[in-house]
Amino acid sequence: MEIASSSKAWHFIGPQASFRGILAVLSLIAAASAQTGAAKAVGTVTAIKDGSFVVANDTGGETTVSFSNSARILQTTPGQTDLKGASPIQSSDIQVGDRIAVRGEGRPGNVLIASSVIVIKQSEIAERQKREREEWRRGVGGIVKYVDAQARTIIVLNALASSGNPIVVRVSPETVIHRYSSNSVKFDDAKPGTLDQIKPGDQLRARGLKSAVGAEFSAQAIVSGTFRDIAGIISSTDPANNRITVTDLTSRKPLIVNVNGDSQLRRLPPTMAATIAMRLRGGTVEPGGTSPPGGAPQPQAQVSGAELGHRQAGNWHAGGPSADFQQMLSRLPQVSVSDLNKGDAVMLVATEGSSASGPTAITLLAGVEPILSAAPAGTRASTILSPWNLGEPGALAGEASPQ
Which of 126, 183, 231, 352 has most Cβ atoms within 10 angstroms of its Cβ? Predict the structure, then answer.
C-alpha cells in the first residue's frame, strides 16, 4: 500500500482529542504496514542523533529510526482528510516534537530502517489545537432536555449563555460525537459515541456555528456524558484523603466526594458571585461595581483576586451570551480541599462513581451563595454554569496538553 493512497478522514474534537485524531490517521498507515509484514512505529520524535531519530512509541518503548536511500517522506497537516496534499520533505526537516508514522524494515535492538514516513509538524499541531480550543470556547454547553433522533436535534438548557432560553443543537451525519467515560474526569478519555447514547439530563458541549439569534447551533463536534450534578453545603473536609462531604440541597443527604489531581476546584470572589446573581435575576451591572436589588452599588474589593473577578464578570455580562464565561472562571486561582470550609456553599459536577468508589469531582466552585439564592426554583446547578461544568476540553486555561 502506498502512503499517498490513503483517504481516511480524521476529525478533531478539542486540543487533546485532536491529538488523538492525528494518531488515528498515523495509525492507519502503520496498520497497513502490518498487513504487508513491514515493521512500523507511530509516535513522537524525542531526539535526533547522527541522522537517526529516536521515536517514543504511542504503544510504549522507543524505536530508533534511520532512513533508507529511497525513503519517501511526506509532510501533512492536521485537519486534512487524505494525503493528496502532502508535501515531500527531507529527513533534515524533521524536528524534535514532530509526530511521525514510519514503516520499513525492522532490525534488532528496536531499530527500524524507514522506507515510508508521514510527518505532522509540532508547530502545526499546536496551531490546530489553539484554533480548536477557541472553537470550543465559542461553542455551547448545558443540560440536555430532549433528543429527537429522527430530526437529529438536541434541546439544551443553559441559563446563562442563552438567557434562560433553550438552545437547539442540530446534529448532521458529519458531526463528530464523543462520550465521556463514566468513571473518568478527563476530557481526553472520551470515546466515540452515537446520537442515541445522549439522554435527557446529560451534560453536553458542542462546537460549531451559531445562528444569528443564538437560539440554534449547528454542531461540528459534540461531547456528552452523564454526571452527578450537586449544589450543597460542605459539612466536613478531609484534606489528608482528599475528600469532602457535601449535604445535597435537593436530597438533604450527605455525599462523600473524592478529589484528585484532575479535579478543578475554584472559589468565586464575592463581587463575581454577586454579578452572576444579578444576571440570573435579569438585572444590570454598572461599571463601578455590582448592584444587588435594593442596595447601592458595592465597591470593588481590594484584594487582587476579587478585583480580577469583578472586572471579568462585568466584561462577561457586557459581552452577552457569546462572551467567554468559562475562560473567566479558568483564570481564577485553583484552591485545594484544605482551602474549603465547613458551611461553604458549593456547586459541583462529578463522575457517577460506583459502589466501590464514590463520585470524583470534575469541577467544584465555592463562594456561590448569591448564585444559589438567585437561581429560579428547580434550576439545576450545572445548568446555571454550563459550559463550565464539563471540565476543560483541551485545557481551557490556555495550555494544551502534549498528550
Answer: 231
Model confidence at 81, in pLDDT bands (50, 70, 90)? low
| Grid cell 442540530 in the structure block, residue | 170
Banded model confidence at residue 258, pLDDT cuts 50, 70, 90: very high
The burial of 177, by beta-carbon neighbours within 10 Å (0-12 exposed, 13-18 middle, 19 or more buried), is given as buried
Q: What Å distances lie between residue 125 and 25, 73, 129, 145, 402, CA to CA?
A: 14, 18, 6, 35, 10
- Homologous superfamily in CATH for domain 3-130: Nucleic acid-binding proteins (2.40.50.140)
Place 253 in a pLDDT band, splitting at 50, 70 and 90: very high
Rounded to whole angstroms, how far apart are CA atoms 61 and 380? 46
Give the total residue count for the chain.
403
State the first-to-last Cα distance of the chain, in angstroms, to the nearest integer: 29
pTM: 0.58
Among 3.40.50.150, 3.20.20.70, 3.90.1150.10, 2.40.50.320, name the CATH number for the domain at 138-225.
Answer: 2.40.50.320
Domain spans of the chain, in order of start: 3-130, 138-225, 228-390
